[in-house]
C-alpha cells in the first residue's frame, strides 16, 4: 500500500513536470519571437493573434495532408506573413505600434475563427509524438526525452537567438537599432529592412508556438484556443529582461504555475484557480517594481521600443 | 367620391384585421443569441440544432448571432438590432444574459424574451427554461461506475454553482449504486469553455489514476486527454464531441431543445403563451442519455434502460443535492 501510494505521487509529480514543460514550450517560443522583434524596437502586441493564425493553419494542414512537417511549416509561414501586416503598418507606414499590434490580435483571433470554422471538433489522426518513444516515463530524464520535436527546436532557438543577438553582426545591428535609432541610421544601418525582418521572425516564432498548441498540446481546434497565452508571452518578455536565457527560466516558472493550478486541487489544496491564473502577471509587476527600486528602472528594455523611425525628424 | 374610397378602405382593413384574429407564423420571427460558436460541438450547437428543428417544424423565420459575450451591453446591442428588424421572439441561451433580458422585457412589452438557465421571469413576456440534466447525469454515473477498473473516476467541472454541483452529485449517486467502492474526484476549471484549462484539469485527474472521466464543460478536450491516456470518457451537451475522441467516448447526457422551441413558438402563435419557469425532465425529451457504446456491460445497459423508464414514468428521481458533495465525491464545493 505504502509503495503504491509512493508510486502514485511519483506519477503525479512527473505529470506536473511534463505539463510544466508543455506549457513552458508554448509560452517560450512566442516570447522569444517577441523578444527579437522588440530588440529591433518594434513592439508587437499581436502575439495572441499570430499564435492563433499559426495554430489554425497548422491544424488545417495536418487534417488535410496528415503531413506534420508540412503542417509545422505552414503554421510558421502563415503567422510570419500575418505579422508582416504589422511590419508594413509600423515600419513602412510608420504608424502607431500599439494600435497596430492590438488590431493584429483582434484580426488574428477573428480570422482564425473564420478559417477554422469547418474544422471545429475534427479529430487529428497524426499528432506530434515524442522524439523518443517512451511509455510510462519513470523519471525526469525520461519525461524530457519524451517531449516532441518542437520542444527541442525551442531549445535550439534559444541558444541560436542568444548567440545571434550577442555575437553576430546581424544581432548587433538589431540591438543598435533598438537602442539608438539615430546613431544606427548615421552608421548607415538599414533600419526599415532590419525591423521588418525582426518582426516577421517574431511572427514565425509565434506561428511555431501555435502549431505546438494544436498539433500536440491540445490537439484540437476551436475558437479561443489560445486563451490569453499571447498576453502571458508578452509579460514573459518583460520578466526575462529581453534576455533569451532568463526568458526561458521565466517560461518554466509561468508554465509551472499553469500546470500547478488544476493539480493543486487533486493534491487536496483548496486554493482558488483564479489566484493561480493571475500569478504570472503579479510576478511580472513585482519584477518591474524590484528593478525600479534596485536598478533605477533599468528593465533591460530596448530604448527605442515603440518609436517609429522618421529620418526627417532627426 | 374620393371620401367614399377612403371609407371603403378603412372598412375593408377593419374587416381584414377582425378576420385575421388567428395569427400566422409569418407574423413572428425568432432570434437566438449564443455565447459560443454555433458549431462548438457542445452547448451552443445543441441550441442551434434546436433552432433548425424549430424551422423544420413550424417554418418560422429565424436568425442567430454567435459568440455574444455574457455581458449586458453586448447582449442588448445584438437583441436591439433584431427587434429593429422585426424579430419578436428572442431566445437568450446563456445565464449571463439574465439582467439584460429582464430589463429589455420591460422596455419591449411586445417582444417575447425566453432565457435559458435563468431564474427571473415576469407575468407577460419574459420566461425562463431549463432541463433536469441531473437525471441523465445520474444514468451516466451508472455507466461510469460499472466501467471503472481503478475505482477512480474523474470529473472536470466548470464552476461551483448549484447546477453543476447537482449534476456531480447525481452522477456520483449513479456511480455509488453500481460500485460503492468507487470515488468521483472533481477538479474545477472556472471556465465553461477553455480547451487548455480543460486539458490541464483532465490530465491532473488522469495522473491520480482515474480511468473514466466525465465533464461539465463545453469543449471535448477532456475526451481527447482521456483517449490519449487510454481512459474512458462521458461527454456532455451533444454527441458531436465524440468525433474528437471516438476511442474514449462512452455516452453523454445530452440536450434536445427542439421540441421545447416548437412548443413555445406554437403557443405564441396560437396566443396561448404563458410566461413561466420551465424545467423539463426526461419525460419531455429535453434531456436524455445518448446511446451507449458497446463498451458498456450488458447488465449495466439494461439497468440504465430500467432506470430511464422509472425516471420517465416518475417512479424514481435522483436526489437533488446542491449544498455539498455526497460522500463518494472528492473535492470541495467552495474552492
Oligomer description? heterodimer
Question: CATH-wise, what's the superfamily of the largest domain in chain B?
Answer: Response regulator
Calculate the mean pLDDT score of chain B and round it.
91
Shape by Cα distribution of chain A: globular
**CATH-defined fold name of the largest domain in chain B:** Rossmann fold
- Biggest β-sheet: strands ordered side by side in the sheet of chain B: 2-1-3-4-5-12
What is the helical fraction of chain A, as a range of percent?
Answer: over 70%
What structural category arises from helix and sheet content of chain B?
A: alpha/beta
Q: What general outline of chain B do the C-alpha atoms trace?
A: elongated
Strand fraction of chain A equals under 5%
Mean pLDDT of chain A: 90
- Tell me the number of helical segments of chain A per DSSP (H or I, 4 or more residues long): 12
The SSE string of chain A, one letter per element, is HHHHHHHHHHHH
Topology, element by element:
The complex is a heterodimer of chains A (314) and B (335).
Chain A (H helix, E strand, L loop, with lengths): L1 H38 L7 H19 L2 H25 L4 H20 L23 H6 L3 H19 L1 H11 L1 H6 L4 H27 L11 H11 L4 H23 L6 H22 L20
Chain B lengths: L1 H18 L9 E5 L9 H16 L2 E5 L6 H13 L4 E4 L5 H10 L4 E5 L9 E6 L2 H14 L4 E6 L4 H17 L4 E6 L6 H13 L4 E5 L4 H8 L3 E3 L14 E3 L1 E3 L2 H12 L7 E4 L6 E3 L8 H16 L15 E2 L5
Parallel strand pairs in B: 1-2, 1-3, 3-4, 4-5, 5-12, 6-7, 6-8, 7-14, 8-9, 9-10
Antiparallel strand pairs in B: 11-13
Helix pairs in contact in B: 2-9, 3-4, 5-6, 5-10, 7-8
Amino acid at each position: 500500500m505504502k509503495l503504491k501510494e509512493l508510486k502514485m505521487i511519483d506519477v503525479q509529480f512527473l505529470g506536473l513536470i511534463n505539463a510544466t514543460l508543455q506549457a513552458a514550450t508554448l509560452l517560450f517560443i512566442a516570447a522569444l519571437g517577441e523578444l527579437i522583434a522588440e530588440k529591433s524596437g518594434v513592439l508587437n502586441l499581436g502575439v495572441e493573434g499570430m499564435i492563433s493564425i499559426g495554430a489554425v493553419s497548422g491544424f488545417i494542414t495536418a487534417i488535410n495532408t496528415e503531413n506534420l512537417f508540412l503542417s509545422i511549416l505552414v503554421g510558421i509561414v502563415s503567422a510570419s506573413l500575418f505579422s508582416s501586416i504589422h511590419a508594413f503598418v509600423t515600419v513602412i507606414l510608420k504608424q502607431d505600434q500599439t494600435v497596430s499590434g492590438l488590431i493584429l490580435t483582434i484580426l488574428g483571433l477573428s480570422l482564425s475563427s473564420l478559417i477554422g470554422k469547418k474544422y471545429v471538433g475534427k479529430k487529428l489522426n497524426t499528432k506530434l509524438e515524442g522524439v523518443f518513444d517512451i511509455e510510462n516515463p519513470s523519471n525526469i530524464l525520461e519525461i524530457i526525452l519524451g517531449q516532441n520535436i518542437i520542444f527541442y527546436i525551442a531549445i535550439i532557438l534559444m541558444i541560436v537567438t542568444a548567440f545571434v543577438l550577442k555575437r553576430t553582426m546581424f544581432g548587433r545591428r538589431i540591438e543598435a537599432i533598438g537602442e539608438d535609432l539615430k546613431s544606427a541610421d548615421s552608421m548607415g544601418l538599414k533600419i526599415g529592412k532590419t525591423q521588418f525582418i525582426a518582426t516577421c521572425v517574431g511572427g514565425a516564432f509565434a506561428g511555431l508556438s501555435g502549431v505546438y498548441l494544436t498539433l500536440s498540446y491540445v490537439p484540437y481546434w476551436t475558437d479561443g484556443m489560445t486563451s490569453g497565452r499571447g498576453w502571458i508571452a508578452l509579460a514573459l518578455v518583460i520578466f526575462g529582461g529581453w534576455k533569451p536565457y532568463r526568458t526561458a527560466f521565466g517560461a518554466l516558472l509561468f508554465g509551472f504555475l499553469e500546470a500547478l493550478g488544476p493539480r493543486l486541487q487533486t493534491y487536496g489544496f483548496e486554493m482558488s484557480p483564479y489566484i493561480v491564473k493571475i500569478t504570472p502577471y503579479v510576478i511580472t509587476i513585482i519584477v518591474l517594481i524590484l528593478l525600479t527600486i534596485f536598478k533605477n528602472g533599468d528593465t533591460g528594455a530596448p530604448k527605442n521600443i515603440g518609436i517609429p523611425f522618421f529620418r526627417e525628424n532627426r | 367620391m374620393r371620401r367614399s374610397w377612403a371609407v371603403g378602405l378603412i372598412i375593408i382593413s377593419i374587416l381584414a384585421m377582425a378576420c385575421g384574429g388567428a395569427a400566422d407564423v409569418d407574423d413572428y420571427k425568432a432570434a437566438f443569441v449564443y455565447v459560443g460558436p454555433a458549431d462548438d460541438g457542445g452547448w451552443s450547437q445543441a441550441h442551434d440544432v434546436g433552432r433548425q428543428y424549430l424551422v423544420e417544424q413550424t417554418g418560422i423565420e429565424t436568425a442567430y448571432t454567435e459568440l455574444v459575450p455574457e455581458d449586458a451591453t453586448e447582449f442588448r446591442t445584438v437583441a436591439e438590432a433584431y427587434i429593429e428588424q422585426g424579430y419578436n421572439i428572442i431566445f437568450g441561451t446563456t445565464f449571463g444574459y439574465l439582467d439584460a433580458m429582464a430589463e429589455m422585457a420591460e422596455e419591449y412589452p411586445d417582444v417575447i424574451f425566453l432565457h435559458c438557465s435563468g431564474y427571473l421571469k415576469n407575468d407577460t413576456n419574459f420566461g425562463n427554461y431549463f432541463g433536469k440534466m441531473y437525471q441523465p447525469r445520474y444514468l451516466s454515473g451508472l455507466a461510469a461506475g460499472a466501467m471503472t477498473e481503478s475505482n477512480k473516476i474523474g470529473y472536470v467541472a466548470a464552476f461551483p454553482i448549484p447546477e453543476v454541483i447537482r449534476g456531480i452529485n447525481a452522477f456520483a449517486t449513479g456511480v455509488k449504486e453500481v460500485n460503492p467502492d468507487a470515488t468521483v474526484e472533481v477538479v474545477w476549471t472556472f471556465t465553461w469553455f477553455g480547451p487548455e484549462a480543460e486539458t490541464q484539469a483532465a490530465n491532473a485527474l488522469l495522473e491520480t489514476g482515474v480511468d473514466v472521466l466525465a465533464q461539465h464543460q463545453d469543449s471535448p478536450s477532456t475526451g481527447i486527454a482521456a483517449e490519449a491516456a487510454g481512459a474512458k470518457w462521458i461527454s456532455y451537451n451533444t454527441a458531436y464531441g465524440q468525433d474528437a475522441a471516438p476511442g474514449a467516448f462512452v455516452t453523454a447526457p445530452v440536450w434536445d431543445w427542439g421540441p421545447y422551441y416548437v412548443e413555445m413558438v406554437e403557443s405564441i402563435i396560437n396566443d396561448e403563451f404563458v410566461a413561466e419557469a420551465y424545467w423539463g425532465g426526461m419525460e419531455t425529451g429535453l434531456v436524455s442519455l445518448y446511446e451507449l457504446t458497446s463498451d458498456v456491460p450488458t447488465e449495466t445497459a439494461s439497468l440504465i434502460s430500467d432506470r430511464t423508464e422509472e425516471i420517465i414514468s416518475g417512479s424514481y428521481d435522483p436526489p437533488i443535492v446542491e449544498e455539498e458533495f455526497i460522500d463518494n465525491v472528492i473535492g470541495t464545493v467552495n474552492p
